[in-house]
Amino acid sequence: MSGKQFTYVRDLPPERRIDYSTWHSQQVESMIAHALSTVPEVEIPITDAWESVEKTVQVEQLQDQTVYEYDLDTEQVQQVTRQVPVMIAQGTGEYERRLKSGVRFDEQTGKFYRTRTAADVSDIEISQGLSELPQWVMDRLP
Question: Pairing state of beta strands 103-106 and 50-71?
Answer without folding.
Answer: unpaired
